[in-house]
Design goal:
CATH topology of the largest domain: Rossmann fold
Strand order of the largest sheet: 7-4-20-19-18-8-9
Number of strands: 32
Shape: globular
Radius of gyration: 24 Å
CATH class of the largest domain: Alpha Beta
Number of helices: 24
């Protein structure tokens, strides 16, 4: 380690950002308790590769804004609200919350005082109003062990199933469709299996920016003969490697994929044996897609009928075809219908259970798969066991030693509604920032402000933490040991590299300390013991433990972890529900139609350098330097029609609010649409978004709402 301090050591862990789950090593300056370098390791998901976030986005751990002591709100600071925010947006544009604008409204406290206040208030609400007056938001940025403990505390300690996390904002509709269709929410084939596919459909996702290392394997596959069919409303860079790029109109997914299935059935490209032996309800699906010939939907989809037909023929004639999708499929009020179409497309062509086939919704956060597996969902216990199943519930009551509610809990957006209505009185939020991440910020503001008691556990003073009564300083991913599960179902062990700052504590310890104070003791010798309890109440993880995972992890299911890495391909012979259910879907209208006043469709998403609400990446010097401000992307034709030039400051407004932001005039965006990334609090996309949700997945419609755009008379100061 030439040029490094003699105190440097190397710690093997996992990247804390997207769901690809890249194995990495941190080089740690132990004398100064900081990471000085990140190196890619030869992991199953990355083969030594890292993207810009994994390679450079580690210095947030030692940022001056880190929370280091518990904080309690000063009584005179009421009424509650986001203290760094007013009706015109944040007071300090250009970066994340500056604690100096907020800290005067809080005072430092000892851990004992802070935890006692948390316990007294949450237990008091439970005893006075009942458990369903409480709720918890967990985190997909933490470990499986933390997710398991958090949902256990909410269910057994608070007495409610009101527990959810960010899967509700990303792939809830995909999981709903997969559970309905095949009985499992996991992916069927790993990302790297694309190398064995003849055709890969990549739809509603932007892997080069959102899953960059996964995208390298997609590009390599294309170079070696795999035909990529890329479908989107905003051209992603992966389209440069595609055999076909099809730009569809926002919200037309169901019509487009029904038309593809129409062609495949009409041309006799179905796998009749697979349909007969592995599926049910094909006749109903066939009858529905008969109403969607390409010629009848071409104008609505914005794609010529001949090109829809060509895409269908390429997919249908493939010996092995994979389907990858992202939040452009899931984040709609018809997101579950979108996913139902993709599942049916794979099933009628027999494309599952074999190399180079299968369905892969690309997971967003580093542990959104694991957090879901661990039960951080309101209607299921760990491993997707239903809370309203008496036999399942009896099993967990015996394990956890408490009566458990048989009533499925509220989802993220339903908890917000409950807080607004006064039904939810107290909340525990761990590592989530709903004030920026959830739709219709003004609605979220009112809901958070109405809570009787809110405790927030995080590593920074987020916008959501500004509403808290008590703020508890937790640990960053590099400061903890625990497992995470990536988009491939690979369970990997992250190891602690740094000490938490000041008096900050391990998140799993804090959860257990709160449990103690609400009258439900949870005691474990170490975090490995937590994993063992979690794995023991599942089938998926039952054979795994920290020791067997080692430095490289295992795919689940893994019947023999001593001699096998697990199963990269699942459902070779049957599905968890037996036969796959083919669920027909019909085109539904948009949640909010455009009109003369609001003529454009808003799409939201991410950029390469940043992550979700920017809590971590905007405190990374390199990443913030590469992408310091938000933007609205608009097609040149629309820009000309509105008198907007590249670089102009503009106002984007919806029926819920407005933001001021700089315009980028780009032809990658479809005409009639605009795109705003979600990371920038000073130009918060969710001021604009619509709170309507998918009826099955209960996911918000982040990808579709009506907006208008206008050039500002004078440019705003940068």
């Amino acid at each position: 380690m030439t040029g490094q301090s003699v105190s440097a050591r190397v710690v093997n862990s996992v990247c804390p950002y997207c769901g690809v789950g890249c194995a990495l090593s941190w080089v740690v300056d132990t004398a100064n308790n900081r990471i000085v370098e990140a190196r890619g390791r030869d992991g199953a998901a990355n083969l030594g590769r890292l993207c810009v976030k994994g390679r450079y986005g580690f210095d947030y751990t030692t940022h001056a804004h880190r929370l280091a002591r518990p904080l309690i709100r000063r009584e005179q600071s009421y009424p509650k609200g986001a203290l760094s925010w007013d009706d015109n947006g944040p007071h300090r544009p250009g970066g994340p919350v500056d604690p100096q604008t907020v800290l005067p409204h809080f005072r430092e406290a000892t851990w004992d005082e802070a935890l006692e206040r948390v316990g007294e208030n949450l237990a008091g609400i439970r005893e006075r109003e009942g458990g369903d007056a409480l709720a918890g938001f967990g985190s997909a940025k933490g470990s499986n062990e933390e997710a398991y403990l958090f949902q256990k505390l909410i269910r057994a300690g608070f007495g409610t199933n009101n527990v959810d996390h960010c899967t509700r904002l990303c792939h809830a509709s995909s999981v709903a469709a997969l559970l309905e269709g095949i009985g499992s929410g996991g992916v069927t084939n790993i990302v790297r299996d694309i190398a064995r596919a003849d055709v890969a459909l990549i739809t509603g996702c932007n892997p080069t920016e959102n899953h960059p290392v996964a995208a390298t394997f997609m590009k390599e596959a294309a170079a070696n003969g795999t035909e990529l069919l890329v479908v989107n409303t905003r051209r992603p860079a992966i389209a440069d490697h595609a055999a076909m790029y099809l730009e569809i109109r926002p919200g037309s997914d169901v019509s487009f994929y029904n038309a593809m299935m129409h062609v495949i059935i009409r041309e006799g490209l179905i796998d009749a044996d697979f349909i007969a032996t592995r599926t049910e309800n094909f006749d109903a699906l066939k009858a529905t897609v008969a109403d969607y010939p390409p010629e009848s939907v071409a104008e609505f989809c914005g794609v010529e009928a001949g090109r829809i037909t060509e895409a269908a023929l390429r997919f249908g004639r493939a010996g092995a075809a994979m389907v990858f999708w992202g939040m452009g499929i899931s984040q709609h009020t018809h997101g579950t219908d979108n996913a139902r179409c993709l599942i049916a497309l794979a099933m009628i062509t027999g494309n599952t259970g074999r190399p180079g086939t299968g369905m892969h919704p690309l997971r967003g956060q580093n542990n959104v798969q694991g957090a879901s597996d661990a039960g951080l969902i309101p209607m299921v216990f760990p491993d997707y066991q239903k809370v309203d199943d008496p036999d399942v519930r009896a099993r967990f009551e015996a394990l956890w030693g408490r009566p458990l509610s048989p009533t499925p809990g509220r989802t993220v957006t339903e908890i917000t509604e409950g807080a607004l209505e006064g039904a939810i009185r107290g909340m525990y939020i761990l590592g989530e920032n709903p004030f920026v991440s959830d739709p219709d910020v003004e609605k979220v503001r009112k809901a958070l402000a109405r809570l009787e008691f809110l405790v927030v556990q995080d590593i920074f003073l987020t916008e959501t933490a500004e509403f808290a009564d008590v703020i508890l300083p937790g640990s960053a991913f590099a400061e903890k040991t625990g497992t995470v599960t990536n988009t491939d179902r690979r369970v990997q062990l992250g190891r602690q590299a740094l000490r938490p700052p000041g008096e900050a504590r391990q998140d799993w310890h804090i959860i257990c300390q709160i449990a103690q104070r609400v009258g439900y003791p949870m005691e474990y010798a170490d975090v490995a013991a937590v994993f063992d309890e979690f794995a023991g109440c599942t089938d998926s993880y039952a054979s795994l433990n920290h020791t067997v995972l080692g430095d490289h992890g295992r795919w689940y299911p893994c019947p023999d972890p001593e001699h096998s890495e697990g199963e990269p391909i699942v459902f070779k012979d049957t599905f968890p529900r037996g036969r796959a259910l083919l669920v027909p879907a019909r085109q539904s209208p948009p949640v909010e139609a455009t009109d003369a006043e609001y003529p454009l469709v808003l799409n939201t998403g991410r950029v390469l350098e940043h992550w979700h609400t920017g809590t971590m990446t905007r405190r990374s010097q390199v990443l913030h330097g590469l992408s310091p401000e938000g933007f609205v992307e608009i097609h040149p034709d629309d820009a000309a029609g509105h008198g907007i030039a590249d670089g102009d400051w503009v106002e984007v407004a919806s029926r819920r609010g407005s933001i001021r932001i700089r315009a980028q005039v780009r032809d990658r965006i479809a005409r009639g649409s605009v795109f705003v990334p979600m990371h920038y609090r000073e130009a918060c996309a969710n001021v604009l978004t619509h709170p309507a949700v998918d009826p099955d997945g209960k996911i918000p419609a982040f990808k579709y709402c009506a907006v208008r755009i206008s050039r500002l008379a004078a440019k705003k100061s940068a």
